[in-house]
Amino acid sequence: MGIKPVLMKEVWQYFANKQLAGLLANAVIILVIGMLLIVSGPKYLTSYSKQLAMEQISESPLVFGLSENEVAKMGEDAITFAALISQLSVVVILVSALSSYASIVSSFFNEKLNKTMEILFSSPLSESEILLGKLLSTVFFSLLSWGFAFASLFFLIQYLHLKALGSIWHPTLYFIIITVFVPFSMMMFSISTGLVVSVKIKSSELINLMSLPLVLTPIIISFASAKLGLNRTFQIYLLLGICSLVASLIIAMLGKRVINRLAFITN
Question: Which of 79, 90, 102 minimizes the C-alpha distance to 22?
Fold first, then answer.
């Protein structure tokens, strides 16, 4: 029969729960915050954020894809530009990690809690088809969530660069790492972690508590970047991405021992 029925069920459930509106809301929030900064300048930044952006753009303008002359030409827009790339990008990481975790938990834990997994497992579908269908749908919606957030941020950066310099901005390695590689690796880690805890943990409060490291880690790195410096912060983000990928693989391999039909239908 294949995984198509499971995929269709997950898509229908996703739209029925209005989770797509949540994904769009995240992108809209990024756009609103970014446009407010672009239109008004860095005056709406906190003193900490403004000082951090100023230090970073002065320390390593090339990391942001700008020359010293371009920074001078942009004026205060350069501060906003640095804030968009180094600070608002953290929101992309958070959105990717949390939406992935929420999606996998919604797909498995809530069905287990409502005992609807028993009905699903009583269908002609095999255990592997059910699990694969749910995982693929989770990956799809996670990528959709990241895509909306990334597109919003990328649009803001391009708009500001065109407005200030009249040219297209070319993404730098730093930008790609913190908006593509780290979110993707955190996404994989969130999915693998969410799948295992959905099987092993019965308390919804504890399930929610397990998502705290996904939130705190990028926020702590962002706040620590003032003391660490831009280059070291870049290295830490890169390390976070690598560790998340490795951890997701380890959790996935260990999870094979606890993920089975019985784990989902027993109380």
Answer: 102
Location of structure tokens 């962002």:
222
pLDDT of residue 262: 55
- Among all chains, which residue has been given the structure tokens 């672009």? 38
Prediction pTM value: 0.86
- Per DSSP, the residues of 170-215 read PPPHHHHIIIIIHHHHHHHHHHHHHHHHHHH---HHHHHHTTHHHH
| Distance from the Cα of residue 224 to its chain's centroid | 19
Contact between 219 and 41 under an 8 Å Cβ cutoff? The reply is no
**Residue 20 above 70 pLDDT?**
no
CA distance 14 to 20: 7
Residue among 137, 156, 193 at smallest CA distance from 77? 156
- For 65, the 3-state DSSP assignment is coil
Q: Computed from CA positions of residues 45, 215, 151, 172, in that sequence, does the dihedral angle turn out positive or negative? A: positive
Distance CA 95, CA 51 (A): 25
Cα distances (angstroms) measured from residue 173 to each of 10, 74, 245: 35, 21, 19
Query: Which DSSP letter does residue 169 get?
Result: P
Query: Measured between alpha carbons, how far is 20 from 190 in angstroms, rounded to an integer?
Result: 19
Tokens found for residue 29: 């929030």
Nearest to 156 by CA among 87, 225, 62, 237: 87
